[in-house]
Structure formats: C-alpha cells, structure tokens
Amino acid sequence: MKKRNIFRLCFLSLIIIFGILSLISYRVSYSNTISTTDIQNSKKVLDDEEAWEFLDGAEMIDDDVIESIDADVDFNKIIVADENDEEDPDRIVKLNNANKGVAKPSSAKNAVKKYETNETSLGIDVSTWQGNINWKKVKQSGVSFAMIRVGFRRLDAGTIVMDNKFLNNIKGAIANNINVGVYFFSMARNSTEALEEAKWVANVIKDYDITYPVAIDIEIFNRNRLKGVSYSTMTNNALVFCKYIKSKGYTPMIYSYANAFTKYFDTAKFSGQRIWLAQYNDKVTYKGNYHMWQYTSSGSVPGISGRVDMNVAYFSVTNDVTKASTVNGITNTGNLEKVNFKDMNMKTSLTKEVTLRSSPYTTLPNKAGTLEKGTSITITGMSDKYIRILYNGNTFYINDVNCFIMNLEQVEFNEVDMDVRCDKEVTLLYKPYTFLNNNEYKKIAVNENLRIVGVNTEFVKILYNDEYYYINDVNFYTVLNDNIYNGSSGS
What we know:
Strand content: 25-35%
CATH superfamily of the largest domain: Glycosidases
Mean pLDDT: 82
Structural class: alpha/beta
Distance between the termini: 121 Å
Radius of gyration: 32 Å
CATH architecture of the largest domain: Alpha-Beta Barrel
Oligomer: single chain
CATH topology of the largest domain: TIM Barrel
Shape: elongated
Number of domains: 4
Number of helices: 10
Largest sheet: 8 strands, mixed, barrel
C-alpha cells in the first residue's frame, strides 16, 4: 500500500514538473512577441445603413454610436507580425503601385531643398520593409518627420498584428528628435472592425510622444477579405477609425491614392478630415484637398538601405500638430466653369440608383453617397447635365437629368378670373416649368388680350382657345376686368 502511494506521489510530481517546463518553454519560444493569441472576435456589426444615419457632412460618427459598437480588444493579447509576413497587405500594394503613378527617384538632399520651408516639412514613412534603420543618419539628412507603420490587419485571416520593426522605429526616431506619426494598414470589413483597429492602435502608441497624425491606410478594395465590401462601407470605416483616434487626443488622417479618393470613397464625408494623398508625380493633379503628399516610393535617405516613401506635410516643422489648430493643406480644385441652374420645386422619386455629389462636378472628389431607386427627393434646380436636390435637409447634386419621375401636375395656383392686356411680349408654355425642352406654344404680342384663371409666385395660368397654358411672368399685364370681384364666375 505504501509503495502504491509513493508511486502516485512520484507520478504527480512528474506531471507538475513537466507542466512547469512546458510553460517556461512556451514563454521563451515567444519572447520576441508581446503575446501570441488572436484578438477576440467582434460580437456586433453596425450595418452600413445604420451607421450612415449618424453621419452629418463634416461631422463624424456621434460618440454614442462609437460606444454602441461592440469591438472588444484584449490589450494583453497583441501579436507581433512575422518577418516578411505572408499576409502583409503591403505585398499587394507593392505589386500594384501603378495606382499611384510613376515613382520617380528622389534623394533626401534634393527633397529638403525642394520642399522644406517654414510652412511645410519633409518626411518619410517606414515599415518592416525598410529593415533596420540608422535614425541618427536619417535625422542628419534633414528629414523632419516619420510616419511609422504601427501594424496591419492580415489579408485573409483578419488578425491584427504589430509591425515587427515598429518598436525599434518609434524609439529610434523619437530618440533622434524626429517628429513621429503612425499609420495602420486597415483591412476592416465593417464599423466594428474599424473601431477594433482604432482601439488597438491607440493602446499601442499611448506611451509614446506622437506629434504627427495617426493615419488609417486604406488602399485595397474588393479583394481578399474585403471582397464585396461597398465603397460606402469603406468610407464609413475610415470615419469610425478617425472619430475614435480623435477622442483619444490624436490628430486622425486618412491615407489612400488619388483615384480612390476621386472614384471610390464618398470623399465629401471627409471634409473634416486630414487627407494623406499618394500620387507619384512631379505635381499633384488630384482635384481635392490634402494635407500630406506622398510623392514617391523611390526615395533614398542616408541610414536606410534601399527605397523609402517620401512625403511633404503642409504644416510647419515646428508645429505640434496634435495641439495646433492651424494647418495649411492644399486646395487643388482648379478653375471650374460655373454650372447654372433653373430653379424649380418638384417632389418626386428616383427611377434608378444614383450617386450623390456635394458639388455639380464629376472631376472632383465629391461623392456623398448613393440613393436607391424609389427614394423620395425634392428637385430644386436643373441644368443641362445635373439636377440639384434637397434630401434630408441637405443639398446634393446628381449627374443625371433623366433619373426621376416627372410630376408635372403638382404646381398649385390661386384661382382668379381676369381679363388682361399684355404690356410686353410673352410666351405661352404647355406646362408651368421652364426646364423642359420644346415647352413653348406660341408668342403673345404687346396689347393682345388674355384671360388669366390662376396665379402663383412664378407663373400665371391662361385660358386660351379653350386650352390652358402658362406664362413664366407675373408682371406682364394690365387688368381690364376682374370677373370674380364683379360677381361673375369664370370657368
């Protein structure tokens, strides 16, 4: 009996020892990471229509909406990316830089001479792809700021991971008195994941002196885990990220390339945000506002082996941009020909899905969303190519003059019955609208007599040859006889 107890005791001791050794081995094997388990899956997704209800022009998502999105993040479970991570979204971008233009070579010395002023500053953006950086040499080259990749969401797995050079880069840049901002490469499919990314970023950078913006990098559309995600959702994700980052005291910024800002995002919603524009060109041709310009991926900077992205920030080198309110930025809308509208007031509904714009131009990054077929709108003006509408109390423009039901019988008139004489030449119209083509019936000469049976603020209604016509003028006549006041009833 005693031998059996001794055997059991030895067996239990071996199990305990094995467990301790396994734990030590586990911790040692992952000593290069902060932790090794995935961030917990989100539980609630705020769908696109719900989220847009809380957007209002330059204003972003309301604080209570941010709180309503359940994006729990366990800050003790942060993964560091593998070196040359197979699911690093930058792999796709580097193979598809044609979206940004032709990346012409640029040296730090020439860039400082060309771009550095009291109102601008020269910088770089770096990630694991630049390897080990000598930040002392970078500082000596004249670089004023660095946008450092803090992490990314994996292409398909969707795991949030830290860039494996982030800690070295941010510590090295700050130690050498280089202003730092950070960016996160997003692959968020919805508002929940966008908020999850923002919370993750804010936690990782909280102990560092971030003096330049915190950017969300969105440059992959409709592929990998983003397959089928709408442009409106991508827009919304950027706004959710920015709202949370701003709430934590940082300056948010949105990074992408010119074509994405012009054609994909509902960029009108970004009017209150800083824009980091990627366009590899001698000068920017993007017709919109931007605050930082990434002008090449072929930069050469002492202290960095190989190529590096180079940027111009349109705010002073000495500004603490997280606290200063003055930012120059660039407005590059150009000289646009004025679009003239004929005023109208027609309640109608759409016959097809349309794109809303914040201005009557298709060459500007001014998309403000979409409206579905059947949506009720009020048309307030029409030009040759655009209609101006009122929707939910806001004015928008649609580049389609045949997208609505023509309600021509809804103009109201106050009933009158007057014989009048024309004091000037006028035109009889078939309908009480001036925006329709071929709307004229005939000209009425000066001193000709007419019978007016209805009036409003813009038109008079005429009974002529037993048919009703309209004149777009309420001051063209002299009253000869007011049949109503004289006791007769006109028909």
